[in-house]
Amino acid sequence: METNAGRVERLTQYVKGVLEKRDGTMLYNEYKEDLEKVTPQEAFEIFSNQIQRGIKPKEILEILDKVIHVFNKSLIKYQWKKPEKGSFLDALMKENEALEEKLSAIKEIIKKKDFKNNKDDLLKRIEELQQFDDHYLKKENILFPYLEKKMKKFEGLSIMWALHDEARASLKKLIYILKSEEASETDFNVEIGNLLFILYGLVYKEKYILFPSAMEVIDDKEWYDMKKQSYEYGFPFIERPPIEKDDIWEEEDKVVKQGQELVMKTETGEISFQQALMIFNALPVDLTYVDENNKVRFFTRPKDRIFPRSPAAIGRDVRNCHPPQSVHVVENIIDEFRKGHKDSATFWIQMKERTILIQYFAMKDSEGQYKGVLEVSQDITEIKKIEGEKRLLEWQ
Length: 396
What we know:
Elements: H1 5-19, H2 24-35, H3 40-52, H4 57-76, H5 88-111, H6 115-128, H7 133-150, H8 157-179, H9 185-217, H10 220-230, E1 254-258, E2 261-266, E3 269-272, H11 273-282, E4 286-290, E5 296-299, H12 327-339, E6 344-351, E7 354-364, E8 370-379
Antiparallel strand pairs: 1-2, 2-3, 4-5, 4-8, 6-7, 7-8
Helix pairs in contact: 1-2, 1-3, 3-4, 3-9, 4-8, 4-9, 5-6, 5-9, 6-8, 7-8, 7-10, 8-9
């Protein structure tokens, strides 16, 4: 669906006027013809243009619903091809329908006007809404990346992501209110009103803007790939779609030469040999890999290594890398990993007034065959002191 560049530019000016708090009636009358013809994709482009002007998503949120309300007449009559049954988008739409049913049930309880006796039931139902976060995560981590790769205008999805975060914050606050022994009915009414406004608003924006736009720019193969990726998440309030044989990701890992570099390509991305080394050495842990023949094959060189390692250890039998009194522990771990009885082993020790966490993980190939052990050592002294939350950047 091609967008009308002239209309987009004019309505970009309309939204700019709303942000500047110009008279609403005068603005509407000035842009009425365009307002009654705006399409879902044009809506994205209009808001994306505001971001390009330097307007922050938080500022746009303040006028978002007012503008979309004005777009409503055009958006609800817009005709678009609906997704196939069982597809990724079909599941998202069904989740929205199920969410609306949950919200309707909550509203029915509120109508009884008996907050004290219904408080526990409300808490249970409100807590259940936390499951819907998987719906937002699938949008953020699967749908949004595909759209952003299509067109620059889909940078405007950051506005919808900000709405997800508002929903999460409101839900968290509501649960806190309901769990409080001095829960205020007034506080509850204010926050439940806020949450319902956000959730119903998101359903509307998905139904009339996001989903129609996505159907017009994403091809069948991409929808299919998204469906396969979605099985790593939950399907809130609907039956989990059955996994067909073709829905399972197949390993396609390979190393290719690009110019003068070797590049490892996998289904989760690609990195060069040099980038892989930088990643390994940037991790705040010591990594040592021992292969299925008990030979040391690789270790990392982080900035502050906990246990000394030297290249002379490469090819050495791992049993010869430990003091005699602890060799039996190493042999036991390897034996249990090789037999498939265990997948990990964890220890922690005190060393020079620091707490060191030492973990061993069984390495297996795609067919489940034992391929060795990964030793991971980490200084967790400071981690143990962490309490509460830290959401702001504070350089030490």
